[in-house]
Write a structure and sequence with these properties.
Length: about 425
């Protein structure tokens, strides 16, 4: 039976989205919810992300879809086609939570439930201590988090991983084991394999002590938050920090303000931001430069503009567009792309394509998170973001720079900047010539 936080109770007809990987933890959670579904008349939606890095992942997704059909559960899934960030785990978490939130909104669900358990909490706390955080960050993650229009609930925080696997065994719950979870390559795995066994030998109920520690830190942080909130009224102007007023605050409160601003961009259990990032932002704020920025994980920017400082998601400032290309298109950046009959020009303003190599129609759009292009002559792919940086394209211009893709999403050309492997030499076969003016 679910041992959910005492502050949480089900109500009849609650609609719940459950993040499920097919691992022993999330399958146990789905089974527990099935056991109380009729009692509370719950509406359960299972959301699954295929990370597309193991051949078994497609078998697992198919199994879960069939399992949901058998148990009269709504099944929603997505496949991560491309990764743009250098840190796989960081980007996978970012994409996964975006997907879960979209499903929550699609079904107007009240709750998003994930299968984080007591061992996960221990690992997260230890990793945060080593990497650096603030007081609430050292608490790991909460079992219940109120979002704007739904609630994240982690019902398994009182269980250990061993207890969940025992539950699966006793209740004949099927599950898959991800072999990559045992690899020492990943930081969390090393904590799981080498540190947790030692702690559990010292005290088999150590997860309860860490939960108490976590709750104590969150209680203490409430007092700090009161001081921080008062400071926010003094330093914020329309979500931007007034630097001159910010620098008058206590050093500790300054950092708390930065963590508060970051909380809009990172889920509380994502170990993405640490002391290094806080120091980068503090150095930016105190620098003599009047206009500058620093990059944060997952395409988030910390920007300084004279006396103003703000944190934004880089993709938020894009004037987004997606236009199906026929023979001519006028672009928001006051340029155009047109199909022409012939030219001697071989610059990056010209692209020659063979329609047999791509899927028509072509689409002209703005950049997306994780965009990559197979660069002609490079023998591999490169992030669009890095091309913009190499070409010294300003942030403002990156936001509406055209990218030409085919109907499958493959980038075939970045007009004026870079050609893809789909571009043809004049001596090769092609039936489409595009010109960027």
């Amino acid at each position: 039976m679910l041992k959910i936080d005492e502050t949480f109770t089900f109500n009849e007809f609650d609609r719940i989205v459950v993040g499920c990987s097919t691992g022993p933890d999330s399958m146990a959670l789905v089974d527990m919810l099935l056991k109380v579904r009729d009692k509370y008349k719950l509406d359960i939606i299972v959301a699954h992300v295929n990370h597309n890095v193991r051949k078994e992942s497609f078998e697992e997704a198919k199994f879960l879809e069939e399992y949901c059909s058998k148990n009269n559960l709504v099944f929603e899934s997505m496949i991560i086609e491309n990764y743009g960030d250098d840190n796989f785990h960081n980007e996978a978490r970012f994409i996964r939570y975006n997907f879960f939130e979209n499903i929550v909104h699609k079904y107007e669900a009240k709750y998003l439930m994930t299968a984080h358990h007591g061992d996960d909490l221990i690992e997260t706390i230890l990793m945060r201590i080593v990497r650096g955080s603030n007081l609430s960050g050292y608490g790991g993650f909460k079992s219940i988090i109120e979002m704007d229009d739904y609630t994240i609930v982690r019902p398994l925080i009182n269980y250990t991983k061993d207890e969940l696997e025992e539950y699966d065994k006793e209740n004949n719950v099927p599950f898959f084991v991800d072999a990559s979870n045992s690899k020492d390559t990943y930081t969390r795995n090393r904590y799981r394999k080498y540190i947790l066994p030692f702690l559990k030998e010292e005290d088999s109920n150590v997860h309860e002590k860490f939960l108490k520690f976590s709750n104590s830190l969150y209680e203490a942080s409430k007092y700090i938050i009161k001081s921080r909130d008062k400071a926010l009224t003094r330093v914020l102007e329309e979500d931007k920090v007034l630097i001159d007023k910010f620098l008058l605050e206590d050093d500790y409160i300054q950092k708390e303000i930065l963590y508060y601003l970051l909380s809009d961009f990172y889920q509380d259990d994502l170990i993405l931001v640490n002391d290094k990032h806080i120091n980068l932002m503090m150095n930016l704020i105190k620098s003599s430069k009047v206009n500058s920025y620093v990059n944060l994980p997952n395409e988030v920017l910390a920007k300084k503009d004279y006396n103003y400082f703000e944190i934004i998601r880089e993709t938020e400032v894009i004037t987004g567009y997606e236009i199906e290309f026929d023979n001519y298109v006028t672009l928001p950046n006051k340029h155009s792309i047109e199909r022409i009959e012939e030219t001697e020009d071989n610059s990056n303003n010209i692209c020659r394509l063979n329609s047999e190599d791509i899927t028509l129609p072509l689409i002209v759009r703005t950049r997306k998170l994780g965009d990559k292009i197979q660069v002609k002559g490079l023998g591999g792919s490169k992030k669009v973001k890095d091309i913009f940086i190499d070409k010294k394209i300003s942030l403002a211009n990156r936001d509406n720079w055209p990218i030409v893709v085919d109907s499958t999403g493959k980038i075939v050309w970045i007009p004026g900047l870079k050609k893809s492997v789909f571009d043809k030499k004049k001596s090769e076969n092609y039936d489409i010539i595009l010109k960027y003016r």
